[in-house]
Amino acid sequence: MNRRDVMKTAVLGTGLLPTGVGLAATPANAARKSRTFLLVHGAWHNALHWTRVSEALSARGHQVVAIDLPGHGLNARFPASYLTGDAARFAVERSPHAELTLDDCASAVVAALEKLQDGPKPVLVGHSAGGTVITRAAEMAPHLMGRLVYLSAYVPLRLQSASAYGALPEARTGHGESLFIGDPAKLGAVRINPRGDAAYREALRAGFYQDVDEAAFLPFALTLTPDIPLSLWIGKVGATKERWGRVPRSYLRCSRDRALAPALQDLMIREADAFTPGNTFTVDTLESSHSPFASQPRRLADLLDGLR
After folding, report:
1. How far is 43 from 63, CA to CA, in rounded Å?
2. Domains and CATH numbers, the chain
3. CB 220 within 8 Å of CB 49
4. HEC states along the chain?
5. Backbone angles phi, psi at 283, to 5 degrees
């Protein structure tokens, strides 16, 4: 990823969803120390989903870059059956992103970080499955980031992969289980159908965006991609105390989360703190669904702006 690609993605991450959030920094904001934030989306999402948070942080005087991970956003490729609407074929057609790996995604994050080293080291923010990616990126290049921020995100240390934590009793919420399509091992991806019927879209909203009404949810839903590479779900992060464990970190809990249960968030926080007791999480809580970038973007930006 070259500097032009990084800046193009930054524009995509800050310019396309109208919000009414002004971009001009106030004198009070100008006096506050500016940071650089690199935002990493979760499964099926892309840089565009960060737009409202990006605008709110930019209004506070920060530099903000949101990237599309491989297989997502403008990097996405689609199963032919997703475009034709052939449901039976869609359940078995192998993903065009089946060969992408967790390291491919983490390397894209590292490449973006390398382009952002002119000032203070960036704050690296990962949402949901993006937590797996930023954990791996921190293990690969801890010297490139000033802080890790997990937004209701996976921190797969003891069990190494997001899938292993997703299988725990603490992960159960009673929502979302019916959304997944086909056998991930055969597809090479974890698949959903953002173009599904009204009942499917409502289940998607209820599982991930329940504090966003239907009209506001649709722009977020219809810009999702159907596949995440299976490696993002089952890949092992290989985090060590000496590398990942030396980066300061924060966790932003979502207390009404139906996709990544609060009990599982808390379990991963406890395990991480036990792993590196000399470098523990700072923790804040949002009273939100799994998607505060949609339901509470200004409050989320406030918390990011307030990180020490």
Report:
1. 24
2. 3-78+100-169+236-305 (3.40.50.1820)
3. yes
4. CCHHHHHHHHHHHHHCCCCCCCCCCCHHHHHCCCCEEEEECCCCCCHHHHHHHHHHHHHCCCEEEEECCCCCHHHCCCCHHHHHCCHHHHCCCCCCCCCCCHHHHHHHHHHHHHCCCCCCCCEEEEECCHHHHHHHHHHHCHHHCCEEEEECCCCCCCCCCHHHHHCCHHHCCCCCHHHCECCHHHHCEEECCCCCCHHHHHHHHHHHCCCCCHHHHHHHHCCCCCEEEHHHHHCCCCCCCCCHHHCCEEEEEECCCCCCCHHHHHHHHHHHHHHCCCCCCEEEEECCCCCHHHHCHHHHHHHHHCCC
5. -130, 130
Q: What is the pLDDT of residue 124?
A: 98
Residue 79 token pair? 């199963």
The amino acid that residue 282 corresponds to is T
185-195 per-position pLDDT tens digit = 999 999 999 99
CA dist., res. 224 & res. 221, Å (int): 6
What pTM did the predictor assign? 0.90
For the four alpha carbons of 255, 258, 264 and 269, in that order, the dihedral sign comes to negative
Task: Quote the CA–CA distance of 96 and 266 in Å, as a whole number.
Answer: 35
Rg (CA), the chain: 18
β-strands 189-191, 227-229 pairing: antiparallel
pLDDT at 134: 98
Asked if residue 228 lies in contact with residue 189, where contact means CB atoms within 8 angstroms, the answer is yes
Residue 277 to residues 222, 264, 271, Cα–Cα distance (Å): 42, 19, 10
